[in-house]
Specification:
This protein is of the alpha/beta class. The chain folds into 2 domains: about 170 residues, Aspartate Aminotransferase, domain 1, CATH 3.90.1150; about 250 residues, 3-Layer(aba) Sandwich (Aspartate Aminotransferase, domain 2). About 35% of the residues lie in helices and about 15% in strands. The strands form 4 sheets. It has an 8-stranded mixed β-sheet, sandwiched between helices. A 4-stranded mixed β-sheet has the order 1-2-3-16. A 3-stranded antiparallel β-sheet has the order 14-15-17, covered by helices on one side. The longest helix has 21 residues. It is globular, with a radius of gyration of 22 Å. The protein binds pyridoxal-5'-phosphate. Pyridoxal-5'-phosphate binds next to helix 4.
């Protein structure tokens, strides 16, 4: 390869749409991660998707590795999902009353998941985690939550908290508008640090309701935790009568039908889901044992509700997507993703690039590092994001769409064929040549 930059794709229509959007929405977007703040150019406005491909308003075609940030494990516009949604649409959009579709999706999940006995559907991952935290507090009669630096759990007040300055301190708000007193209920500690967890439990003895961790932390790079550490979290929470919450909004139905709980062979007390469970529609869910779930209203005194919860169209999308997954997709998907990642790793190693590709199932993260493992947020070099920025631009110019930040992971979907992955690999090789053309 030549190590030459490719000319920029046309973003004329996207630019016009973005200019208009800026008049209507803060920053021109309805979710900040879409804004291309840390990469080159204006956000691409997407017109349609099919399989692993998306097309923007200027007609540029991309192989998509963002996949709507994870939900589209079968790719865009999957026929089974589309048919199921179309059928449900004929009967109306929402009733605010129970429907059989809710039972159907719940049955599909609960009969094939050893880790939860009862489930409650909500409308987003944020809502699922917010509700799980309330449930943990209601169940234990304690207030404090331990969360980890580098884990994202949605934008509810208790969870928009970053680490304070000591090893174990009260958290500090990471957003304006979160009361300091709320943040004080959240203790933020580094990942992969047993001592910090032990210290938090001794410093806040009998005050901790729950420890929350992402199934595999995948919102600040891919911070794969060791099995022993996850089991340590299970033991220390049990010893302190605190609950262990697995936030599986990304990993649920992604690593396998039973998500990270099965991956680590650990029984969390509460598990939250989102993304894949709704097949691309707005859905979240949380589940636990019958005993813990009995505390949720109307059975119990922990209140949680939703006008559109269990929405029939969303249920129909989830039923179709999870049915396909259950019929056996993971083995071939995960091995396809692994072959892709291994080929990338072989290439960067042969070139002596400071690059490591971390992966779990069909989730991958290209990190500009020479570390063998990255298990905590502080181990990521912020300077390396400059390299991602160059790679992102080169990839777009070669028809490959990655999330617009080097801290975001990529997803391989079942719709990515070997040919697509071959094409993507070549584009990644070429883009890395540009990134490293002046040395490492
Ligand atoms: N939890 C995790 C692990 C997530 O990755 C996300 C979103 O990316 C959320 C919670 C919040 O989900 P949502 O964006 O659907 O509110």
């Amino acid at each position: 390869f030549s190590g030459q930059s490719k000319p920029d794709i046309s973003r004329e229509k996207s630019t016009q749409l973005y200019e208009k959007a800026k008049q209507y929405f803060p920053g021109g977007v309805n979710s900040p991660v879409r804004a291309f703040k840390s990469v080159h150019g204006v956000p691409l406005f997407i017109e349609k998707g099919d399989g692993c491909l998306i097309w923007d308003a200027d007609g540029n075609e991309f192989i998509d590795f963002c996949c709507s940030w994870g939900p589209l494990i079968l790719g865009h516009n999957n026929e089974k999902v589309r048919e199921s949604v179309t059928a449900a649409l004929q009967n109306g959009l929402s009733f605010g009353a129970p429907t059989a579709l809710e039972n159907e999706l719940a049955e599909l999940i609960l009969k094939n998941n050893r880790f939860i006995e009862k489930i409650r559907f909500v409308s987003s991952g944020t809502e699922a985690v917010m509700s799980a935290i309330r449930l943990a507090r209601g169940y234990t009669n304690k207030d404090k939550i331990i969360k980890f630096e580098g884990c994202y759990h949605g934008h509810s007040d208790s969870l928009l908290v970053k680490a304070g300055s000591g090893l174990v301190t009260f958290g500090e708000t990471s957003s304006a508008g979160v009361p300091k007193s709320f943040a004080e209920e959240t203790i933020v500690i580094p990942l992969n640090d047993r001592k910090a967890v032990e210290e938090a439990f001794s410093q806040f003895k009998d005050q901790v309701a729950a420890v929350i961790i992402e199934g595999i932390p995948a919102n600040n790079g891919l911070l794969i935790q060791e099995k022993e550490y996850v089991h340590f979290l299970r033991e220390i929470t049990q010893q302190n009568n605190a609950l262990l919450i697995f936030d599986e909004v990304i990993t649920g139905f992604r690593l396998g039908f039973e998500g990270a709980a099965a991956y680590y062979d650990v029984q969390p007390d509460i598990i939250t889901y989102g993304k894949i469970i709704g097949g691309g529609m707005p859905v979240g869910a949380y589940g636990a044992s019958n005993e813990i779930m009995s505390r949720i209203s109307p059975d119990g005194n922990v209140y949680q509700a939703g006008t559109l919860s269990g929405n029939p169209i969303a249920m129909a999308a989830g039923i179709a997507q999870l049915s396909v997954l259950k019929s056996g997709v993971y083995k071939s998907l995960n091995s396809k993703a692994l072959a892709f990642v291994e080929a990338l790793q072989r290439y960067v190693s042969a070139k002596n690039y400071k690059v490591k590709i971390f992966s779990a199932g069909s989730i991958f993260w290209i990190a500009f590092t020479d570390k063998e493992h990255i298990r905590a947020a502080s181990e990521i070099d912020p300077q390396s994001m400059e390299k991602y920025k160059v790679m992102h631009r080169e990839l777009l110019n070669r028809g490959i769409y990655f999330g617009p930040s080097g801290y975001e992971v990529g997803f391989v979907s079942n719709a990515h064929t070997k040919t697509d992955l071959e094409k993507a690999k070549r584009a990644i090789f070429e883009s890395l040549e540009v990134v490293f053309r002046n040395g490492n």
